[in-house]
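Sequence, please.
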């Protein structure tokens, strides 16, 4: 099977994520004004970023309370290439932040899609970790795609588990009727103070480095133990 053009692959990435968000009941709307080169509130040429300093292929969406910038990583798994791509997308995020409120800026996310076959390549694994540790301007996550397109659904599901639309508690049989809890909304029964403190400890992480999947698993375990201590 021949690989689809990168722009179409990015569109597929956006559609996949949007559909998953809508299945969770989150509103999804395109935000094309965030993908331009001019800062909000000014017509001055000085209040722009040269288009050569911005990514050539980018999408922006409002999903629930989050703003997400979607983009593509370069085909070549080298540090200079990824650094340059990351720099351009950071610039785009700076433009986007000028349109957002302070609280909205805190929820800005940047999701970058790797080339076909990047999922199990050692260089891409390292480069994916490199870009996800960059916390400037926006939180960043990389979807490193499998070599076989037939594994896209499985691979994408693993990526979603690390994002804000993940709902790990929906598979928690022990939670009973609490499985429908949506962290986008306040719990009617309230969150036990000890559980809230545990959530904060997990999220902040201290000196311990954890993968996104390990953080989700730790949060689920903390939720299961609520009220038992």
């Amino acid at each position: 099977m021949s690989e689809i053009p990168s722009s179409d692959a990015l569109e597929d990435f956006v559609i996949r994520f949007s559909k998953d968000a809508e299945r969770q009941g989150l509103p999804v709307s395109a935000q094309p004004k965030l993908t331009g080169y001019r800062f909000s509130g000014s017509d001055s040429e000085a209040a722009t970023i040269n288009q050569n300093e911005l990514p050539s292929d980018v999408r922006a969406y409002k999903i629930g309370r989050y703003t997400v910038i979607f983009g593509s990583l370069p085909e070549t798994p080298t540090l200079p290439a990824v650094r340059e791509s990351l720099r351009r997308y950071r610039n785009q995020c700076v433009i986007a932040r000028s349109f957002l409120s302070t609280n909205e800026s805190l929820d800005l996310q940047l999701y970058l899609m790797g080339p076909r076959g990047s999922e199990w390549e050692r260089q891409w694994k390292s480069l994916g970790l490199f870009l996800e540790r960059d916390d400037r301007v926006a939180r960043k996550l990389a979807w490193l795609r499998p070599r076989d397109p037939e594994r896209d659904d499985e691979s994408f599901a693993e990526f979603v588990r690390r994002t804000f639309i993940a709902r790990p508690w929906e598979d928690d049989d022990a939670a009973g009727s609490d499985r429908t809890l949506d962290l986008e909304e306040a719990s009617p029964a309230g969150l036990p103070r000890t559980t809230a403190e545990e959530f904060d400890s997990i999220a902040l992480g201290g000196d311990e480095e954890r993968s996104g999947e390990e953080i989700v698993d730790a949060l689920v375990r903390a939720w299961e133990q609520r009220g038992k201590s």
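Helices lie at 6-23, 79-97, 102-106, 122-132, 152-160, 193-204, 212-224.
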